[in-house]
Protein backbone atom coordinates (compact mmCIF):
# COMPACT_ATOMS: atom_id res chain seq x y z
CA UNK A 1 0.00 0.00 0.00
CA UNK A 2 1.40 3.34 -1.03
CA UNK A 3 0.54 6.99 -0.61
CA UNK A 4 0.17 8.41 -4.09
CA UNK A 5 -0.36 11.99 -5.20
CA UNK A 6 -1.80 12.24 -8.70
CA UNK A 7 -2.25 15.48 -10.60
CA UNK A 8 -4.50 15.83 -13.62
CA UNK A 9 -4.01 18.76 -15.97
CA UNK A 10 -6.74 20.80 -17.62
CA UNK A 11 -7.00 18.68 -20.77
CA UNK A 12 -7.53 15.57 -18.62
CA UNK A 13 -10.54 17.10 -16.84
CA UNK A 14 -11.91 19.23 -19.67
CA UNK A 15 -15.47 17.87 -19.41
CA UNK A 16 -17.66 15.49 -17.41
CA UNK A 17 -16.76 12.41 -19.49
CA UNK A 18 -13.05 13.03 -19.11
CA UNK A 19 -13.45 13.59 -15.38
CA UNK A 20 -15.24 10.26 -15.06
CA UNK A 21 -12.52 8.63 -17.16
CA UNK A 22 -9.62 9.80 -15.02
CA UNK A 23 -11.59 9.29 -11.82
CA UNK A 24 -11.83 5.61 -12.73
CA UNK A 25 -8.05 5.48 -12.64
CA UNK A 26 -8.15 6.90 -9.14
CA UNK A 27 -10.85 4.46 -8.09
CA UNK A 28 -8.80 1.53 -9.34
CA UNK A 29 -5.72 2.59 -7.39
CA UNK A 30 -7.84 3.25 -4.30
CA UNK A 31 -9.50 -0.19 -4.57
CA UNK A 32 -6.00 -1.69 -4.82
CA UNK A 33 -5.47 -0.27 -1.34
CA UNK A 34 -3.48 2.89 -2.07
CA UNK A 35 -4.05 6.14 -0.24
CA UNK A 36 -4.94 8.71 -2.88
CA UNK A 37 -4.55 12.48 -2.99
CA UNK A 38 -5.67 13.98 -6.29
CA UNK A 39 -4.61 17.49 -7.28
CA UNK A 40 -6.59 19.03 -10.12
CA UNK A 41 -6.22 21.87 -12.59
CA UNK A 42 -9.14 23.85 -13.90
CA UNK A 43 -10.85 22.56 -17.03
CA UNK A 44 -8.77 23.31 -20.14
CA UNK A 45 -9.28 26.92 -21.23
CA UNK A 46 -11.06 27.92 -18.04
CA UNK A 47 -8.27 29.98 -16.51
CA UNK A 48 -7.93 31.90 -19.79
CA UNK A 49 -11.67 32.40 -19.93
CA UNK A 50 -11.71 33.83 -16.42
CA UNK A 51 -8.82 36.17 -17.15
CA UNK A 52 -10.74 37.34 -20.23
CA UNK A 53 -13.81 38.05 -18.14
CA UNK A 54 -11.78 40.05 -15.65
CA UNK A 55 -10.28 42.07 -18.48
CA UNK A 56 -13.71 42.91 -19.83
CA UNK A 57 -14.25 44.89 -16.67
CA UNK A 58 -10.80 46.32 -16.10
CA UNK A 59 -7.79 46.73 -18.33
CA UNK A 60 -5.54 45.67 -15.49
CA UNK A 61 -7.65 43.67 -13.00
CA UNK A 62 -6.70 44.08 -9.37
CA UNK A 63 -4.33 41.18 -8.55
CA UNK A 64 -6.02 40.21 -5.30
CA UNK A 65 -9.44 40.01 -6.88
CA UNK A 66 -8.09 38.30 -9.96
CA UNK A 67 -6.74 35.49 -7.78
CA UNK A 68 -10.12 35.07 -6.10
CA UNK A 69 -11.61 34.79 -9.57
CA UNK A 70 -9.02 32.38 -11.00
CA UNK A 71 -9.19 30.08 -7.98
CA UNK A 72 -12.78 29.24 -8.91
CA UNK A 73 -11.59 27.17 -11.89
CA UNK A 74 -10.07 24.53 -9.65
CA UNK A 75 -13.00 24.68 -7.22
CA UNK A 76 -15.21 23.43 -10.02
CA UNK A 77 -13.03 20.45 -10.93
CA UNK A 78 -12.32 19.21 -7.38
CA UNK A 79 -16.01 19.27 -6.50
CA UNK A 80 -17.09 17.56 -9.73
CA UNK A 81 -14.42 14.93 -9.26
CA UNK A 82 -15.59 14.18 -5.72
CA UNK A 83 -19.23 14.17 -6.80
CA UNK A 84 -18.40 11.45 -9.28
CA UNK A 85 -16.31 9.44 -6.81
CA UNK A 86 -19.09 9.54 -4.21
CA UNK A 87 -21.63 8.49 -6.83
CA UNK A 88 -19.48 5.40 -7.37
CA UNK A 89 -19.49 4.58 -3.69
CA UNK A 90 -15.96 5.89 -3.11
CA UNK A 91 -15.69 8.21 -0.11
CA UNK A 92 -14.13 11.46 -1.26
CA UNK A 93 -13.60 14.97 0.09
CA UNK A 94 -12.67 18.00 -1.95
CA UNK A 95 -10.47 20.60 -0.30
CA UNK A 96 -9.72 24.16 -1.38
CA UNK A 97 -6.42 25.76 -0.47
CA UNK A 98 -7.50 27.08 2.92
CA UNK A 99 -8.92 23.69 3.84
CA UNK A 100 -5.89 21.81 2.55
CA UNK A 101 -3.84 24.48 4.38
CA UNK A 102 -1.49 25.35 1.58
CA UNK A 103 0.21 28.50 2.85
CA UNK A 104 1.86 30.97 0.51
CA UNK A 105 3.30 34.47 0.55
CA UNK A 106 1.10 37.29 -0.69
CA UNK A 107 2.55 37.66 -4.21
CA UNK A 108 -0.78 37.50 -6.03
CA UNK A 109 -0.54 35.74 -9.37
CA UNK A 110 2.86 34.24 -8.62
CA UNK A 111 2.68 33.22 -4.98
CA UNK A 112 5.21 30.82 -3.49
CA UNK A 113 4.27 27.96 -1.25
CA UNK A 114 5.76 28.48 2.20
CA UNK A 115 4.41 25.36 3.85
CA UNK A 116 1.56 22.87 4.00
CA UNK A 117 -0.11 21.77 7.20
CA UNK A 118 -1.10 18.22 6.30
CA UNK A 119 -3.12 17.44 9.46
CA UNK A 120 -6.53 17.68 7.77
CA UNK A 121 -5.50 15.68 4.74
CA UNK A 122 -3.95 12.97 6.90
CA UNK A 123 -7.16 12.77 8.91
CA UNK A 124 -9.15 12.23 5.73
CA UNK A 125 -6.70 9.62 4.48
CA UNK A 126 -6.89 7.79 7.78
CA UNK A 127 -10.63 7.48 7.23
CA UNK A 128 -9.73 5.91 3.89
CA UNK A 129 -11.15 8.78 1.89
CA UNK A 130 -9.83 10.02 -1.44
CA UNK A 131 -8.85 13.67 -1.09
CA UNK A 132 -9.20 15.96 -4.08
CA UNK A 133 -7.16 19.15 -3.70
CA UNK A 134 -7.55 22.32 -5.74
CA UNK A 135 -4.28 22.96 -7.58
CA UNK A 136 -2.79 26.35 -8.38
CA UNK A 137 -4.18 28.12 -5.30
CA UNK A 138 -2.97 28.91 -1.82
CA UNK A 139 -3.80 31.09 1.10
CA UNK A 140 -1.66 33.73 2.80
CA UNK A 141 -1.22 34.10 6.55
CA UNK A 142 -4.37 36.17 6.97
CA UNK A 143 -6.52 34.09 4.66
CA UNK A 144 -6.30 35.91 1.32
CA UNK A 145 -6.58 33.60 -1.66
CA UNK A 146 -3.49 33.53 -3.86
CA UNK A 147 -2.54 31.71 -7.05
CA UNK A 148 0.85 30.27 -7.94
CA UNK A 149 1.18 31.37 -11.55
CA UNK A 150 0.23 29.62 -14.79
CA UNK A 151 0.74 25.90 -14.70
CA UNK A 152 0.96 26.09 -10.92
CA UNK A 153 -0.99 22.91 -10.24
CA UNK A 154 2.15 20.88 -10.92
CA UNK A 155 3.80 22.71 -8.06
CA UNK A 156 0.81 22.09 -5.80
CA UNK A 157 1.09 18.37 -6.53
CA UNK A 158 4.82 18.10 -5.95
CA UNK A 159 4.70 20.27 -2.82
CA UNK A 160 1.87 18.11 -1.54
CA UNK A 161 3.80 14.93 -2.27
CA UNK A 162 6.83 16.35 -0.47
CA UNK A 163 4.80 17.45 2.56
CA UNK A 164 3.03 14.09 2.80
CA UNK A 165 6.25 12.19 2.05
CA UNK A 166 4.28 10.40 -0.64
CA UNK A 167 5.72 7.31 -2.27
CA UNK A 168 5.00 8.68 -5.72
CA UNK A 169 3.81 11.82 -7.46
CA UNK A 170 2.24 11.22 -10.86
CA UNK A 171 1.60 14.14 -13.19
CA UNK A 172 -1.03 13.20 -15.75
CA UNK A 173 -1.16 15.29 -18.88
CA UNK A 174 -1.90 15.00 -22.60
CA UNK A 175 1.57 13.86 -23.65
CA UNK A 176 2.96 10.51 -22.59
CA UNK A 177 6.21 11.70 -21.09
CA UNK A 178 9.37 13.68 -21.62
CA UNK A 179 10.91 13.34 -25.07
CA UNK A 180 14.46 13.62 -26.40
CA UNK A 181 13.18 16.58 -28.46
CA UNK A 182 9.86 18.15 -29.33
CA UNK A 183 8.17 15.44 -31.45
CA UNK A 184 6.39 18.10 -33.49
CA UNK A 185 9.76 19.34 -34.72
CA UNK A 186 11.69 16.10 -34.68
CA UNK A 187 9.79 13.00 -35.84
CA UNK A 188 12.54 10.72 -34.52
CA UNK A 189 12.12 12.02 -30.98
CA UNK A 190 11.92 9.22 -28.42
CA UNK A 191 10.21 9.10 -25.07
CA UNK A 192 12.69 8.90 -22.21
CA UNK A 193 12.21 6.20 -19.58
CA UNK A 194 13.89 8.41 -17.04
CA UNK A 195 15.55 11.75 -16.72
CA UNK A 196 17.34 13.42 -13.81
CA UNK A 197 15.89 16.36 -11.90
CA UNK A 198 18.75 18.53 -13.14
CA UNK A 199 18.18 17.64 -16.76
CA UNK A 200 14.46 18.19 -16.37
CA UNK A 201 15.12 21.60 -14.82
CA UNK A 202 17.25 22.59 -17.79
CA UNK A 203 14.69 21.25 -20.26
CA UNK A 204 11.83 23.04 -18.48
CA UNK A 205 13.72 26.32 -18.38
CA UNK A 206 14.33 25.92 -22.11
CA UNK A 207 10.64 25.78 -22.73
CA UNK A 208 9.80 22.05 -22.63
CA UNK A 209 6.23 22.49 -21.49
CA UNK A 210 5.57 19.11 -19.85
CA UNK A 211 6.28 20.26 -16.31
CA UNK A 212 6.10 23.66 -14.72
CA UNK A 213 9.65 24.57 -13.78
CA UNK A 214 9.06 25.38 -10.11
CA UNK A 215 7.57 21.97 -9.54
CA UNK A 216 10.80 20.37 -10.78
CA UNK A 217 12.85 22.48 -8.37
CA UNK A 218 10.61 21.34 -5.54
CA UNK A 219 10.86 17.72 -6.62
CA UNK A 220 14.63 17.92 -6.69
CA UNK A 221 14.92 19.60 -3.30
CA UNK A 222 12.76 16.98 -1.61
CA UNK A 223 13.66 14.12 -3.94
CA UNK A 224 10.03 13.46 -4.76
CA UNK A 225 9.79 10.51 -7.17
CA UNK A 226 7.97 12.11 -10.06
CA UNK A 227 6.36 10.49 -13.07
CA UNK A 228 4.98 12.35 -16.09
CA UNK A 229 2.45 10.34 -18.07
CA UNK A 230 -0.66 10.57 -20.18
CA UNK A 231 -4.17 10.25 -18.79
CA UNK A 232 -5.33 9.03 -22.20
CA UNK A 233 -3.16 5.91 -22.44
CA UNK A 234 -1.70 3.23 -20.20
CA UNK A 235 1.88 4.02 -21.31
CA UNK A 236 4.27 4.12 -18.37
CA UNK A 237 5.54 7.69 -18.80
CA UNK A 238 8.88 9.21 -17.80
CA UNK A 239 10.37 8.98 -14.31
CA UNK A 240 12.11 12.13 -13.08
CA UNK A 241 14.60 11.06 -10.47
CA UNK A 242 18.10 11.29 -8.99
CA UNK A 243 21.08 10.59 -11.17
CA UNK A 244 22.40 7.05 -11.44
CA UNK A 245 25.36 5.56 -13.25
CA UNK A 246 23.27 4.22 -16.07
CA UNK A 247 22.05 7.67 -16.95
CA UNK A 248 25.61 8.92 -17.31
CA UNK A 249 26.57 6.55 -20.10
CA UNK A 250 25.10 8.72 -22.82
CA UNK A 251 26.53 12.23 -23.06
CA UNK A 252 23.29 13.87 -24.14
CA UNK A 253 19.71 13.12 -23.08
CA UNK A 254 17.80 15.73 -25.01
CA UNK A 255 17.77 18.69 -27.37
CA UNK A 256 15.73 21.78 -26.66
CA UNK A 257 14.87 24.80 -28.74
CA UNK A 258 13.98 28.09 -27.13
CA UNK A 259 12.65 30.75 -29.47
CA UNK A 260 11.55 33.23 -26.86
CA UNK A 261 14.74 35.17 -26.36
CA UNK A 262 16.13 38.28 -27.99
CA UNK A 263 19.71 39.48 -28.15
CA UNK A 264 21.10 42.86 -27.19
CA UNK A 265 24.59 43.91 -28.27
CA UNK A 266 26.41 46.96 -26.97
CA UNK A 267 29.50 47.77 -29.01
CA UNK A 268 32.72 49.44 -27.92
CA UNK A 269 31.95 49.55 -24.24
CA UNK A 270 34.85 51.18 -22.33
CA UNK A 271 36.59 48.42 -20.37
CA UNK A 272 36.65 49.82 -16.83
CA UNK A 273 35.47 48.58 -13.44
CA UNK A 274 31.87 49.53 -12.72
CA UNK A 275 30.56 49.68 -16.27
CA UNK A 276 28.83 46.29 -16.30
CA UNK A 277 26.92 47.05 -13.13
CA UNK A 278 25.77 50.39 -14.53
CA UNK A 279 24.39 48.64 -17.59
CA UNK A 280 22.79 45.68 -15.84
CA UNK A 281 21.52 47.27 -12.63
CA UNK A 282 18.58 49.08 -14.27
CA UNK A 283 17.65 45.90 -16.17
CA UNK A 284 17.68 43.92 -12.94
CA UNK A 285 15.69 46.57 -11.12
CA UNK A 286 13.05 46.32 -13.84
CA UNK A 287 12.79 42.61 -12.99
CA UNK A 288 13.98 41.55 -16.42
CA UNK A 289 15.70 38.18 -16.42
CA UNK A 290 18.99 38.21 -18.29
CA UNK A 291 20.09 34.83 -19.56
CA UNK A 292 23.37 34.57 -21.48
CA UNK A 293 25.97 37.30 -21.10
CA UNK A 294 29.10 37.43 -23.18
CA UNK A 295 31.88 39.97 -22.97
CA UNK A 296 34.84 39.87 -25.28
CA UNK A 297 38.44 40.40 -24.32
CA UNK A 298 39.04 44.09 -24.82
CA UNK A 299 40.97 45.58 -27.66
CA UNK A 300 42.37 49.08 -27.11
CA UNK A 301 40.36 49.45 -23.90
CA UNK A 302 36.98 48.68 -25.47
CA UNK A 303 34.88 45.55 -25.53
CA UNK A 304 31.60 44.31 -27.00
CA UNK A 305 28.93 43.05 -24.65
CA UNK A 306 26.10 40.80 -25.72
CA UNK A 307 23.29 39.35 -23.67
CA UNK A 308 19.86 37.80 -24.07
CA UNK A 309 16.51 38.66 -22.48
CA UNK A 310 12.98 37.36 -23.08
CA UNK A 311 11.63 38.76 -26.34
CA UNK A 312 8.75 40.43 -24.54
CA UNK A 313 11.26 42.44 -22.52
CA UNK A 314 13.41 43.57 -25.46
CA UNK A 315 11.78 46.96 -25.97
CA UNK A 316 11.98 47.82 -22.29
CA UNK A 317 15.58 46.61 -22.08
CA UNK A 318 16.61 48.78 -25.04
CA UNK A 319 14.97 51.81 -23.42
CA UNK A 320 16.86 51.15 -20.21
CA UNK A 321 20.22 50.38 -21.81
CA UNK A 322 20.40 53.13 -24.45
CA UNK A 323 20.82 56.11 -22.10
CA UNK A 324 23.34 54.31 -19.90
CA UNK A 325 25.32 53.12 -22.92
CA UNK A 326 25.49 56.73 -24.13
CA UNK A 327 26.56 57.95 -20.67
CA UNK A 328 29.43 55.49 -20.41
CA UNK A 329 30.56 56.27 -23.95
CA UNK A 330 29.69 53.01 -25.70
CA UNK A 331 29.26 53.10 -29.47
CA UNK A 332 25.81 51.65 -30.11
CA UNK A 333 23.09 49.32 -28.85
CA UNK A 334 21.52 46.81 -31.21
CA UNK A 335 18.54 44.56 -30.51
CA UNK A 336 17.74 41.40 -32.44
CA UNK A 337 14.66 39.21 -32.13
CA UNK A 338 15.50 36.78 -34.88
CA UNK A 339 17.45 34.38 -32.75
CA UNK A 340 16.87 30.97 -31.27
CA UNK A 341 18.72 29.15 -28.55
CA UNK A 342 19.48 25.53 -29.28
CA UNK A 343 20.69 23.43 -26.35
CA UNK A 344 21.83 19.93 -25.66
CA UNK A 345 21.29 18.67 -22.14
CA UNK A 346 22.72 15.64 -20.37
CA UNK A 347 24.27 14.67 -17.05
CA UNK A 348 26.58 12.40 -19.04
CA UNK A 349 28.47 15.32 -20.58
CA UNK A 350 30.20 15.82 -17.23
CA UNK A 351 32.41 12.81 -17.94
CA UNK A 352 32.38 12.68 -21.72
CA UNK A 353 34.96 14.62 -23.71
CA UNK A 354 34.29 16.26 -27.05
CA UNK A 355 30.58 16.88 -26.66
CA UNK A 356 30.84 20.57 -27.55
CA UNK A 357 33.02 19.81 -30.57
CA UNK A 358 30.46 17.30 -31.81
CA UNK A 359 27.71 19.88 -31.43
CA UNK A 360 29.63 22.56 -33.33
CA UNK A 361 30.55 20.06 -36.03
CA UNK A 362 26.92 19.06 -36.53
CA UNK A 363 25.83 22.69 -36.81
CA UNK A 364 28.63 23.58 -39.18
CA UNK A 365 27.68 20.60 -41.34
CA UNK A 366 24.48 22.49 -42.14
CA UNK A 367 26.27 25.81 -42.43
CA UNK A 368 24.51 27.13 -39.35
CA UNK A 369 26.43 30.03 -37.90
CA UNK A 370 26.83 30.15 -34.12
CA UNK A 371 26.25 33.63 -32.69
CA UNK A 372 26.77 32.95 -28.98
CA UNK A 373 27.79 29.95 -26.91
CA UNK A 374 27.28 29.22 -23.24
CA UNK A 375 27.81 26.14 -21.17
CA UNK A 376 26.97 24.73 -17.78
CA UNK A 377 27.95 21.41 -16.28
CA UNK A 378 25.13 19.58 -18.03
CA UNK A 379 24.16 21.89 -20.90
CA UNK A 380 25.64 23.53 -23.97
CA UNK A 381 23.62 26.26 -25.64
CA UNK A 382 24.21 28.04 -28.91
CA UNK A 383 22.37 31.10 -30.12
CA UNK A 384 21.73 30.84 -33.84
CA UNK A 385 19.54 32.56 -36.39
CA UNK A 386 15.91 31.77 -35.68
CA UNK A 387 15.24 30.36 -39.14
CA UNK A 388 17.67 27.48 -38.48
CA UNK A 389 16.17 26.55 -35.12
CA UNK A 390 14.10 23.53 -36.13
CA UNK A 391 16.73 22.21 -38.51
CA UNK A 392 19.29 22.44 -35.71
CA UNK A 393 17.09 20.31 -33.45
CA UNK A 394 16.94 17.52 -36.03
CA UNK A 395 20.62 17.74 -36.87
CA UNK A 396 21.70 17.52 -33.23
CA UNK A 397 19.21 14.77 -32.49
CA UNK A 398 20.89 12.74 -35.24
CA UNK A 399 24.42 13.72 -34.29
CA UNK A 400 23.95 12.36 -30.77
CA UNK A 401 21.91 9.34 -31.86
CA UNK A 402 19.05 10.28 -29.58
CA UNK A 403 16.57 8.18 -31.54
CA UNK A 404 18.29 5.05 -30.19
CA UNK A 405 17.58 3.89 -26.65
CA UNK A 406 20.77 4.10 -24.55
CA UNK A 407 22.74 0.90 -24.04
CA UNK A 408 22.01 -0.74 -20.70
CA UNK A 409 24.88 -1.26 -18.30
CA UNK A 410 24.99 -4.80 -17.00
N1 LIG B 1 -5.39 26.39 -14.17
C1 LIG B 1 -4.11 26.99 -14.02
C2 LIG B 1 -3.55 27.41 -15.36
O1 LIG B 1 -4.11 27.20 -16.38
C3 LIG B 1 -3.14 26.12 -13.30
C4 LIG B 1 -2.78 24.83 -13.98
O2 LIG B 1 -3.47 24.36 -14.86
O3 LIG B 1 -1.77 24.24 -13.59
O4 LIG B 1 -2.49 27.97 -15.41
MG1 LIG C 1 -1.68 23.08 -16.74
Ordered list of secondary-structure elements with their pairings:
Layout: E1 3-8, H1 16-31, E2 35-40, H2 46-57, H3 63-87, E3 92-95, H4 97-100, E4 102-104, E5 113-116, H5 119-126, E6 130-134, E7 137-139, E8 145-147, H6 153-163, E9 168-173, E10 194-196, H7 197-205, H8 213-222, E11 226-230, E12 238-241, E13 254-258, E14 261-270, H9 275-285, E15 293-295, E16 302-310, H10 314-328, E17 332-336, E18 339-345, H11 355-365, E19 372-376, E20 379-385, H12 389-399
Parallel strand pairs: 1-2, 1-9, 2-6, 3-6, 9-11, 10-12
Antiparallel strand pairs: 4-5, 7-8, 11-12, 13-18, 14-16, 14-17, 15-16, 18-20, 19-20
The structure holds aspartic acid and magnesium ion.
Magnesium ion (MG) is lined by residues 9-10, 41, 151, 153.
If helices are DSSP runs of H or I spanning 4 or more residues, what is the number of helices? 12
Strand order of the largest sheet: 3-6-2-1-9-11-12-10
Low-confidence stretches: none
Query: What radius of gyration results from the CA coordinates?
Result: 24 Å
What characteristic shape results from the CA principal axes? globular
